[in-house]
Amino acid sequence: MAATMMKANNQLARASVQGRAARVCARRAVVVRAAAASDDLGFKTMRNGIKEASAESLLTPRFYTTDFDEMEQLFSQQINPNLDMAELEAMCTEFKNDYNQRHFVRNETFKKAAEGITGETRKIFIEFLERSCTAEFSGFLLYKELGRRLKSTNPVVAEIFTLMSRDEARHAGFLNKAMSDFNLALDLGFLTKNRKYTFFKPKFIIYATYLSEKIGYWRYISIYRHLQRNPDNQLYPLFEYFENWCQDENRHGDFFTAILKVRPEFVNDWVAKLWSRFFCLSVYITMYLNDHQRSAFYESLGLNTTQFNQHVIIETNKTTERIFPAVPDVEHPEFFTKMDELVKLNNKVIEIGNSDMPAPLKALARAPYVERMIAGIFQIFIMKPIDCGSFDLEANQTQLSY
Ligand SMILES: [Fe+2]
Ligand SMILES: [Fe+2]
Fold first, then answer.
1. What's this model's pTM, rounded to 2 decimal places?
2. What's the CA gap between 258 and 252, in Å, rounded?
3. Cα gap 16→20, rounded to integer Å
4. Which of 4-8, 334-338, 354-358, 383-387 has the lowest mean pLDDT?
5. d(CA 88, CA 296)
6. Distance in Å, CA 370 to ligand 2 centroid
7. What would the pLDDT profile of 3-46 be if each residue is shown by its tens digit?
8. What is the pLDDT of residue 197?
9. What pLDDT is stored for residue 39 in this prediction?
10. Which of 237, 336, 385, 397 has the highest Cβ tally under 10 A?
11. Contact 47/126 with Cβ under 8 angstroms?
12. pLDDT tens track for 197-240
């Protein structure tokens, strides 16, 4: 009897231990499932903590390459005696001053703030950080290569490019570190070797980089000022760094202004006018569509995506018209009506892309919307532009008028 009772007690004790273990396991499983769910935002990883880069599309940030021999000619003082070396040397000294050397220092608030961002907001934050990091890194790669290639042709310009690549490396690194707060960083070395590079002739590289620096400036400063006015929306400390950060972008843009000023053929004929409008519109439309696809991000910061975008475009355009020979008339009442129409059509295209339709049917369903988007972009392109710039075209002079 005693033996039977002991056996029963042992069984009970075992059952109790097993039960406890099972409950602990179950609890752990719940915790693990919860952690997995919070991190399972649908992002693919290359390895633990390293995010696979998002698929490239027309609207994603690109890496650029150019004709470096032609770039050398552009910066050769023999071929281009108009180069204002005194101005470039002064700029180089400014870059060497390295005003933001001690600016990009993280603190303990980053990780904690990232942990507090959950669900859909977490997902769109990671997407924002990735896009920004890729764009900054793209600048780093291009400027670094230009710094290397121009060393013997024009050491001052080469040094400016190298110093600008220093800034962009800092910006990209800071953003990538922010991504690691969300447990998903980018492998920038892998991206360097594996991402597609888009080729632009030097003239177009200068238009495109000028614009991306200036629009970058206006984006950063507008977000910064908004969050200064609305500190409750400061979800993550990254944005507190934008005020000094955007001054780097402004200086980079000013360097390209100096380059454009001494190349009259880049800014003083009808071809230059067409390309100027084309690049302005490409940059504005890409940003407008991209940001409206991710309006939840801007809303999470308390921004109205449309107002924010329109403000950035209007301000960038005002800055750009001081050097480009023509810019779109973005303050024409129809300009943003047409841009909003593009957003609606783009939403339709995305909706079809996300549907369960078989791929060939998706392509068919998308076609009329894509066609209307192309027509819409063409309509925006043929709107009467603003003639502007720094050259007195009527007198056919190449002298600066400011
Ligand atoms: Fe930058
Ligand atoms: Fe920059």
1. 0.84
2. 10
3. 6
4. 4-8
5. 42
6. 32
7. 444 444 444 444 444 444 444 444 444 333 333 334 567 778 87
8. 94
9. 57
10. 385
11. no
12. 999 999 999 999 999 999 999 999 999 999 999 999 999 999 99
Name the residue among 11, 59, 45 with its Cα closest to residue 294. 59
Spacing, Cα 330 to ligand 2 middle (Å): 24
* Rounded CA separation 92/81 (Å): 19
Mean pLDDT of the chain: 87
CA of 230 to the centre of ligand 2 (A): 26
Q: Which ligand is nearest to the CA of 210?
A: 2
Q: What is the pLDDT of residues 386-400, one digit of tens each?
A: 998 764 433 333 333
Amino acid found at 263: R
Ligand nearest to the CA of 251: 2
Cα(43) to centroid of ligand 2, in Å?
A: 28
CA of 245 to the centre of ligand 1 (A): 7
Ligand closest to the CA atom of residue 245 = 1
What's the rounded Cα separation, in Å, for the pair 147 and 163?
Answer: 8
Closest ligand to C-alpha of residue 213 is 2
Considering just the CA atoms, what is the radius of gyration of the chain in Å?
Answer: 27
Q: What is the pLDDT of residues 249-303, one digit of tens each?
A: 999 999 999 999 888 788 888 899 999 999 999 999 999 999 999 999 999 999 9
φ, ψ at 102 (rounded to 5°): -105, 15
Residue 159 to residue 151: CA distance in whole angstroms:
8
Q: Give the residue-averaged pLDDT of 160-169.
A: 98
CB under 8 Å to 285, separation ≥6 — which residues? Answer: 339, 342, 377, 380
In degrees rounded to 5, what are phi and psi of residue 302?
80, 15
**Cα(171) to centroid(ligand 1), Å:** 5
CA of 203 to the centre of ligand 1 (A): 21
